[in-house]
Design brief:
- About 5% of the residues lie in helices and about 50% in strands.
- By secondary structure, it is mainly β.
- The strands form 6 sheets. A 5-stranded antiparallel sheet has the order 9-10-12-15-14, with no helix packed on it. Strands 19-26-25-21-23 form a 5-stranded mixed sheet, with no helix packed on it.
- Strand 9 and strand 10 (about 135-140) form a beta hairpin.
- The chain is elongated.
């Protein structure tokens, strides 16, 4: 009997642990200024971080001024869903409205909230600052450091405008060791612009070629990381040939591409299309493709041989997914890092026809 009790005791925590978990990208969205009688729609993304399907069973806005729709089907573990809220903006002045979310993950509901101010005249920042984070607008959410050599410390500028009624203190989250940042001014007054200076320490980059990471702009105290406040950063670290002798350089490999720009499309209902580029070595020693990477997740590549003897040719196949391409603003490209001193870095540009 004691043995049976022991087995039950061991199995009980496993049963309890099997449950869904509702994790929102953010619990509060600051809308900034909202134009009077112009409904404003926002999307709360969430992820099921549990190990059982997650189901939203009830949604209760705190006011009839908020209409809500949501993912009604079960969300599998690791998958994402949305709660879409529309504020009717029929009353002038500041507002704070919450939404009660009831799920099968817990007896306790989760609360999401909207905050902003309804005004009769709206300042238009959309031309210069198209990335809308609600209370903050960015000129871009993608920063690229090109052709970085070991020892370089390039600096990029991320410009933003504060659409809040109060001052905003920019704070970036999840900075990797090779990125530092500071803003000027440190506190951006209401309605004013500021700059976040992002500095790259090339000595701390983890690898040669394309290094990609994401950092996140906190829109308010306690903000979480998510797709809505993500800023993507890429840096291309080049190999160095400074230690090679003139004799070695004279016998170096020489890469030649059949084209540096490929055209793909139109898709005409197909999800994936493929193009082929030929790589040749016209040098005197083997050509090594040390890194083969893509800037956009919609692009995948396969290469016949990463090491080419002199006089040999291989095929590089480039495949583009139409579905993934629509979800990204990053231009589709393929990066090659080689041991050819004259072509240490080569980029193949992808033109997509619609």
């Amino acid at each position: 009997m004691k043995t049976i009790y022991a087995i039950v005791a061991l199995l009980l925590p496993l049963c309890v642990a099997a449950q869904p978990r509702f994790v929102p990208d953010t619990e509060l969205i600051k809308l900034g200024d909202v134009l009077f009688q112009k409904p404003k729609q926002v999307t709360f993304g969430f992820t099921n971080r549990g190990n059982e399907p997650l189901l939203i069973t009830e949604v209760h806005p705190s006011c009839g001024c908020v209409a809500v729709s949501y993912t009604g089907s079960p969300v599998e573990p690791g998958e994402r869903g949305t709660v879409v809220a529309t504020y009717d903006a029929k009353m002038l002045g500041t507002f704070y409205r919450d939404i009660e979310i009831v799920t099968n993950a817990s007896d306790e509901p989760v609360y999401l909230a909207l905050q902003g101010c309804v005004v009769t005249e709206l300042r238009d920042f959309s031309d210069g600052y198209p990335i809308d984070l609600g209370n903050i607008r960015l000129a871009t959410n993608y920063i690229e450091f090109e052709d970085v050599n070991k020892g370089d410390h390039p600096i990029a500028e991320l410009t933003l405008v504060n659409a809040e009624k109060t001052a905003f203190h920019p704070e970036l989250m999840h900075l990797p060791p090779y990125i530092t940042a500071h803003s000027e001014p440190e506190s951006i007054p209401a309605g004013q612009t500021g700059v976040i200076y992002i500095e790259l320490d090339s000595e701390k980059l983890p690898m040669m070629g394309l290094n990609k990471t994401s950092i996140y702009l906190a829109r308010y105290l306690g903000d979480k990381i998510g797709e809505s406040n993500e800023i993507r950063i890429s840096a291309v670290l080049l190999p160095s040939f400074s230690d090679q002798t003139p004799e070695q350089l004279a016998r170096a490999p020489q890469m030649e591409l059949s084209t540096e720009r490929v055209e793909i499309g139109p898709f005409a209902g197909r999800d994936k299309l493929t193009a082929t580029v030929h790589l040749s070595n016209h040098g005197k020693t083997p050509l090594q493709i040390q890194q083969l990477q893509v800037f956009n997740e919609a692009v995948s590549v396969s290469l016949g041989n990463r090491t080419l003897a002199p006089g040999k040719t291989t095929k590089l196949k480039i495949t583009v997914s139409a579905h993934k391409l629509q979800q990204s603003q990053i231009s589709p490209r393929v990066l090659l890092i080689t041991n050819d001193p004259q072509h240490a870095k080569e980029i193949i540009y992808i033109d997509v026809k619609h």
